[in-house]
Specification:
Elements lengths: L5 E12 L7 E7 L5 E7 L9 E6 L6 H6 L4 E4 L23 E3 L10 H14 L4 E12 L12 E5 L22 E6 L4 E8 L42 E7 L10 E6 L5 E2 L4 E3 L5 E3 L3 E2 L4 E5 L10 E7 L5 E8 L10 E2 L1
Parallel strand pairs: 3-8
Antiparallel strand pairs: 1-2, 1-5, 1-7, 2-3, 4-6, 4-10, 7-8, 7-9, 9-10, 11-12, 11-20, 12-17, 13-16, 14-15, 14-18, 18-19
């Protein structure tokens, strides 16, 4: 079972309230072009321990997603759960490096040191800019006939919540699991030609989920340990290997027929057998990898069907022998519009 009414709310921020109480949510009041009011309810504390949410803010967000959602009408739009609709998937959409997410309390004395304040800086800027637009991804509720919104008082109550990752859950929350239905926030500042992204995740949620159900995947017990020294620190669960990276790609070659390629870098101190590994594109098409990559070496992988790197923007994902994501990147149509130029990630 997944979210029932997933989509994106697009509008202007006109007021806000900091999250407080036993189940705190940061609240944003939104109005669309025809004057309909909505509320965005953003979790800033988890009901499950650890209570601090993981957060990631990208002030200058560059991703093909922005081209998809910028053309949507004002107000709420339903989004099919796939890679082409504008829906979010923090794992499959290569929206951010997982290791960059940081746990943060919602309310700590002092300036700019808690999640309320991190959100408030961006929202206050959006409220002060008449051209700025907010895009909130999550599950819609309402309109609630003859019922006023309990925070801002407008009628009817109406809004969107689950503004966080919606897969890899535990306990009763697994009923919300699904792919391409994650929550998140985008802020567009047209005068500065800037997009800012905010992504949130509960610490209880897993980074490795089933491609169909969104339920947590368990790492096979027979996997060789990443670090043979039991005393030395192990790589985090968010990066199953953390040994390989996609560092560059030729998406729009000058040759005809086109010869697309991807550069992989072994950042580790050991040789990595690539048998069983795959490279995947935006449509989840996969091509197998072969051979062994020595420490510190860059390997050029020539892209073969069914994988294709679209000139209209896309994503490239590296999967290990267990099908778990090791690294992923994205590129926009603008980055791909120069034939013969290499895109560096």
């Amino acid at each position: 079972m997944s979210l029932k009414a997933y989509g994106v709310l697009k509008g202007r921020a006109i007021s806000r309230r900091l999250g407080s109480g036993s189940s705190p949510h940061y609240q944003i009041r939104i109005v669309d072009e025809i004057g309909i009011h909505y509320r965005i309810a953003i979790n800033v504390k988890s009901q499950l321990a650890p209570s601090e949410l993981m957060y990631y803010v990208k002030p200058f967000f560059v991703h093909p997603l922005t081209e998809l959602v910028s053309v949507l009408p004002s107000g709420f739009s339903r989004l099919p759960s796939n890679s082409s609709s504008g829906a979010l998937d923090l794992i499959r959409g290569n929206l951010m490096p997982p290791g960059m997410m940081t746990p943060l309390p919602h309310d700590v004395p002092g300036p700019d040191n808690d999640l309320n304040e991190k959100l408030d800086q961006i929202v206050q800027r959006a409220m002060a800019d008449e051209e700025a637009l907010v895009y909130a991804f999550g599950e819609r509720w309402g309109p609630e006939a003859n019922k006023a919104d309990k925070y801002f008082g407008f009628v009817p109550g109406n809004g969107i919540h689950d503004i966080h990752m919606n897969q890899g859950n535990v306990g009763r929350f697994t009923q919300d699991d699904g792919v391409w239905q994650d929550g998140g926030l985008l802020f567009h500042f047209p005068l500065q030609q800037q997009w800012t992204a905010v992504f949130l995740k509960f610490q209880s949620q897993s980074w490795h989920t089933d491609d169909v159900t969104g339920h947590t995947l368990s790492t096979p017990e027979e996997d060789e340990p990443l670090n043979p020294d039991p005393v030395a620190p192990q790589p985090t669960e968010s990066l199953p290997d953390g040994l390989m990276r996609i560092v560059a790609a030729m998406v729009n070659p000058k040759e005809s027929p086109e010869k697309e390629w991807v550069h992989l870098l072994n950042v580790s101190d050991r040789a990595i057998p690539l048998d069983g590994w795959h490279l995947a594109d935006k449509q989840k098409a996969k091509m197998p990898l072969r051979g062994t990559l020595e420490p510190g070496v860059i390997l050029r992988v020539d892209v073969q069907p069914p994988v294709a790197l679209s000139n209209k923007g896309g994503i490239i994902t590296l999967l290990n022998q267990n099908g778990l994501k090791v690294h992923g990147v994205s590129y926009t149509k603008q980055q791909a519009n120069q034939p013969g130029w290499t895109i560096v990630f």
